[in-house]
Amino acid sequence: MSTGEIYLDLETLRLSEEVPGGWSNIKDFGLAVAVTWDSVHGFRHWFEKDAKSLVSELARFSRLITFNGDRFDFEVLRGYTSLKKLQSKSFDLLADLKRKLGHRVSLANLTRETLGSAKSGSGLEAVRWWRAGQEEKVAKYCEADVQLLVDLVAFARRNGHVVVDGQRVPVNWR
Q: What is the pLDDT of residues 52-103, one digit of tens each?
């Protein structure tokens, strides 16, 4: 088992309105692509056929860093295999901020305010791109989001805060 941390983001095959049960049935959204980053392997792309291998790889790490992973990314992966080994290792930046602030924040706003960096698209656009056969564009978009996560955590570790609604929010993301 690795003792390091791995960052994860994913994009789906389907939108909430296309799945019976919508947001209460995220496991049926389907995995288009997942991107991971860790200090040994760098960026890696995982597709639907790789879902079980991805979960096995994630289980090797002691910490899984996501943004909304507990509610979304892990739920998508649950549609393919058991995630019992992952939940206790999860560090979800959105969940941490929501506990502190009492409300959700978007990754787009958080990265714009904290890093001055903009997201390169949205989940809705990613599904459209995927369906248009632009798989590499979706993978690069997802990779860019993972890079934003890596940069956010590095900023927070250096500075002890992130910026939300123009205010410094103290965080301990060690």
A: 999 999 999 999 999 999 999 999 999 999 898 898 999 999 999 999 999 9
Q: Is 62 exposed, middle or buried, given 0-12, 13-18 or 19+ CB atoms closer than 10 A?
A: exposed
Residues with Cβ within 8 Å of 145's Cβ and at least 6 positions away in sequence, in order, are 9, 35, 67, 107, 119
| Separation CA 149–CA 32 (nearest Å) | 20
CA-derived radius of gyration, the chain: 15
- Residue ranges of domains in the chain: 5-167
DSSP state of 98: H
Tell me the whole-structure pTM to 2 decimals. 0.94
CATH H-level, domain 5-167: superfamily: Ribonuclease H-like superfamily/Ribonuclease H (3.30.420.10)
Q: Give DSSP secondary structure letters for 10-57.
A: EEESS-GGGSTTGGGGGGGS-EEEEEEEETTTEEEEEEGGGHHHHHHH
Going along the chain, which residue ranges are E strands? 5-12, 31-38, 42-47, 63-66, 90-92, 161-164, 167-170
| Dihedral in degrees, nearest 10, Cα atoms 7, 87, 60, 28 | -70
